[in-house]
Amino acid sequence: MRDCTGMLVKPNTTLHQTIQIIEKDAAQIALVVDSCSRLLGTVTDGDVRRAILQGVNIHQAVGSIMNNDPKAVPQGASRQAVWDLMVRQGLRRIPVIDEHRIVIGIEALEDFLQPPKRDNWVVIMAGGLGSRLAPLTEDCPKPLLKVGPKPILEIILDSLIAHSFRNFYFSVNYKAEMIESYFENGSRWGVNIRYLREKQRLGTAGALSLLPFTPKQPIIIVNGDLLTRVDFGHLLQVHHATGSTATMCISEYTQTIPYGIVRIEGNRFLGIKEKPVQQHFVNAGIYVVEPQVLSQIPSDTYTDMPLLFEQLAGQNKSVNVFPVRDYWLDIGHIEDYERANRDYDEVFP
Question: What is the residue-averaged pLDDT of the chain?
């Protein structure tokens, strides 16, 4: 059972204030209680979005949109009973109440599903300028731009936490103070977050030279401007199974040429193929490297991951790829950001 003190709101709390509470807590739910902390209802981020789409004023009392028949479990309920209710009702969060319906905590689905925690370090590259997303990034670093109810970087973090990773380094540069202020030390998510502060831009590989020491386990590196449902645990398993020194995730990219392609031989016409479709594999911005790779990264030098991988391949190291078959989107342009917001509810329910 988790503490839920920060999730409690009164029925007369405004929708706007409730949104702030929901966004502040990783649970994405608010519990509506009376003056004695008795459970009256629940409000999720989904409830809020639906209310706004229906034209509800954000200064309206949250009691008007809450689920006034919330599911709850009694204090002392067995794990099996809680699990059965979650599965039967399709719930990710269930309040825990005493005999007087006073809220004493909340149960979370991931606490029942999580495998043993992984000690691997995860480095998320969050220092880019985000120039191609201007003017959105003039006052906000790209990793803090919201997709749905959460910043991009928080969605990435949640995905990794769901696969039991708990030790994170965020590489920061542009508007670093905003990122550090939002995530702090990670305690809100129950994980450890530390920061690699780039005094100058070092690239996706160069930032690894700032790690305090060489760990004993492989390191996962993720670009801080992508959304994906890739199974990070499976990625790590494949990296181990193939004996890789470095593994790069790749995604299939399909491109339609908007013209007829003419085949010729000298001046002779051989044929034409209208608007052919070409398929390529592109770098997905997710990597796993063995600890010894860190020794090959120069300090205070701009180095990107593709260059590092080419160097490792040139040394006949075991360098492999991991095709991403799940949802993957690089948020590099405004149209990508707009698509991410359209996709959010379906991909990250």
Answer: 90
* Integer Cα distance of 209 and 196 in angstroms: 9
Task: Give the amino acid at 197.
Answer: R
**Domains of the chain (ranges plus CATH)?**
5-112 (3.10.580.10), 118-347 (3.90.550.10)
Both ends of the chain: CA-CA distance in Å? Answer: 22
Q: At residue 51, what are phi and psi to the nearest 5 degrees?
A: -65, -45
Q: pLDDT for 138-164, tens place per residue?
A: 999 999 999 999 999 999 999 999 888
Confidence of residue 50 (pLDDT cuts 50, 70, 90): confident
Alpha-carbon gap, residue 1 to 107, rounded angstroms: 5
| Long-range contact set of residues 173-178: C-beta below 8 Å, sequence gap at least 24 | 173/127, 173/128, 173/197, 173/198, 173/200, 173/201, 174/127, 174/128, 174/129, 174/130, 174/141, 175/140, 175/141, 175/144, 176/127, 176/141, 178/140, 178/141, 178/144
Q: Give 333's contacts (C-beta < 8 A, 6+ positions apart).
A: 132, 133
Does pLDDT of 211 surpass 80? yes
Helix H or strand E segment including 119: strand 118-125
Q: Is 253 helix (H, G, I), strand (E, B) or coil?
A: strand
For range 78-94, the mean pLDDT: 84
CB atoms within 10 A of CB 134: 11
Inform me whether the pLDDT recorded for 115 exceeds 70: no
For the purposes of burial, counting CB atoms within 10 Å of the CB of 327, is it exposed (0-12), middle (13-18) or buried (19 or more)?
Answer: middle
